Amino acid sequence: MDTILQFFSTYGSEMLFKTLEHLYISVIAAVLGILIAVPAGVALTRFPKGAGIVMGVLGVIQTFPSFAVLAFFIPLLGVGKTPAIIALFFYSVLPILRNTYTGVSGVQKSLLEAGRGMGMTGWERIRDVEVPLAIPVIMAGIRLSTVYLIGWATLASFIGGGGLGDYIFSGLNLYQPEFIIAGAVPVTLLALLTDLLIGKVEGWVTPKGMKKMREAA
């Protein structure tokens, strides 16, 4: 216990930097995943025959070992944060894309017909009906993906991406438990806090009127 306290006293400021670095890598990868996967998921609902193929390809990529994906980008992008973020981005896409497709596809056809009857364009139906009603399912995918990314981001240290993984792997190499704890505990706390925060955001972005419409439907 004294060793751990001494470690935090010595490396406290560095730990804060590593935590922010870890959060930066995870958040950028998650934001890229959201920007790509949500529109792509909505687009796939217009082409359901192609959706199975896209989901299958992404599912295969998801099964690739994390180290293999990281190593793949080293010859292309070198080492550092950029290849780590891009590798994590690939892992973020599938849960968000799948949930977006599922949520939008699950919107009641009667509501879409009502939108057409009101003179809504296709874009207006997506913006005002389909996506708002699918928000809980979409946010569940974002939540799952982001929490996973925070854990996977520890692997970024293998290619010089930094973050809390530096402590974990230094501890493993040096056989010093305090380094492992210094990396693992903040990662766990970040994942829990992120899950809680995204849950709050889900409540904020889901229109109350749409919640009632979903329940009534």
Automatic annotation (TrEMBL):
Pfam families per UniProt: BPD_transp_1
Keyword Flavoprotein assigned: no
Domain ABC transmembrane type-1 residues, every copy: 19-198
Coiled-coil intervals, chain numbering: none
GO cellular component terms, A-Z: plasma membrane
Record's keyword terms, sorted: Amino-acid transport, Membrane, Transmembrane, Transmembrane helix, Transport
Record-linked PROSITE patterns: ABC_TM1
Cell location: Cell membrane
GO biological process: amino acid transport; glycine betaine transport; transmembrane transport
Bilayer-crossing regions: 23-44, 51-77, 83-101, 133-159, 179-198
SUPFAM superfamilies membership: MetI-like (SSF161098)
Membrane topology type: Multi-pass membrane protein
PANTHER family: CHOLINE TRANSPORT SYSTEM PERMEASE PROTEIN OPUBB, GLYCINE BETAINE/L-PROLINE TRANSPORT SYSTEM PERMEASE PROTEIN PROW
Similarity remark: Belongs to the binding-protein-dependent transport system permease family. CysTW subfamily.
Official protein name in the record: ABC transporter permease
Organism: Neobacillus rhizophilus
